[in-house]
Amino acid sequence: MSNERITRWLGSEGRDPGCEGCFEVLDEYADALLRGVDAAGSFPEVIVHLESCAACREDTEGLLAALRGEQTPEEPGSEPGRGSR
């Protein structure tokens, strides 16, 4: 079993702010990542939370993709090509 899995199951030593606390600073965290700032040093609580919360990790990845201008997969049930005109 990997150390990453064990940490996700048992948690880590850092303080986890929960989903709400993470969401409150997610934009600042994403901006720091994109600017190349030491996000782990500046946002250790966010790192702790993202290690254990798949939903917030997914939100973070989506936000980063949007800020980078990357195309994200179509929403389920949406019509392909809509809104891209």
Notes on the protein architecture:
With 85 residues, this protein is mostly helical. The protein has one domain. It has helices at residues 3-10, 18-35, 39-42, 44-52, 54-68. 11% of the residues are buried.
Describe this structure in a few short sentences.
By secondary structure, this protein is mostly helical. The chain has 5 helices and no strands. The chain is globular and about 30 Å long.
How would the blueprint of this fold be written?
Elements: H1 3-10, H2 18-35, H3 39-42, H4 44-52, H5 54-68
Helix pairs in contact: 2-4, 2-5
Q: What is Rg?
A: 15 Å
Strand content: under 5%
Global morphology = globular
How many separate structural domains? 1
Helix content: 55-70%
Topology pattern, helix = H, strand = E: HHHHH
Q: Stretches where pLDDT falls below 50 for ≥5 residues? A: 6-12, 80-85
DSSP, total strands: 0
Average pLDDT works out at 78
Labels describing this entry:
mainly alpha; 85 residues
